[in-house]
Please model this.
Amino acid sequence: MQLNEQIQQKIEKAINLLTLFGMPKAQQNERTAYCLLSLLNMTPEKEWKNAENPLMGITPMMNFAKKYYNKIYAPNTRETFRRFSTHQMVQAGIALYNPDDPARPVNSPNAVYQISAEALQIIKLYKTKDFTKMLDDFIKQKPTLIQQYAHERQMKMVSIKIKENHSIQISPGKHSELIRDIIEQMAPRFLPESLLVYVGDTGEKWGYYDQELAGNLLFNIQQHGKMPDVILYAKEKALLVLIESVTSHGPVDSKRYIELEALFSSVMIDKVYISAFPDKKVFAHYIGDIAWETEVWIADNPTHMIHFNGDKFIGAHK
Model:
């Protein structure tokens, strides 16, 4: 059998597998087939019984398609792979997301996928007499399996206490852990009795949003990607406090200061801008970028706030 024929047959059978596993019509296509084939390390000449389940990120999947199936995807299609192929494979229980490190942030460039052990066992039996029964059993158990996978990730979520008897859960990772420190450690020290308006989350549009309070302050969260990580309202001091959690992305530099000023131009009260860092090492990396007339807080030195003109933090004496 010629290579081109082998390639076409493998793609068709991969699409057939996706269909049999109950994937939606929108995922019964070549793109999702390449995701499946790469996650199985299934080259055109390989037999299904020899399928594997290596850890693999989106870019390696695209490279696999190019190397073994002569299919070239543009780099800017990575998000299409993630949103419209691998995401649904995870939802279907066929693949796992970051099984090697469930605490890995959802926006990490090191994110990986892996065919679940249960799905791999079935795929190895493709075109054999035992395949249909095993697949039927999988489909019956699928809701339980998906709940199990989701529970494993949920256990890694970062819990943040925002009120006496109210906590929220946001995606795992150092960025979220610093957001927790901002709310639980910084705010009580420097902005006691302040109200939480908004918390961003790398995995969702937002982790928390008090829409009524935001409306009273004359702004609305519409452009999630442009929002600061945390927004607090210090009512007694009449301050809106905009905070960036700096772990891998930048602090409130001059450009970001201007952006935030524009985003919150409708707010009639004073605004304070804070760059929060997990430790002095990260702070030292960004110190040359921090805008004047903004604040800095470092989580491993939580009792101090630095104002970038040498004065005391405005929130402490306003």
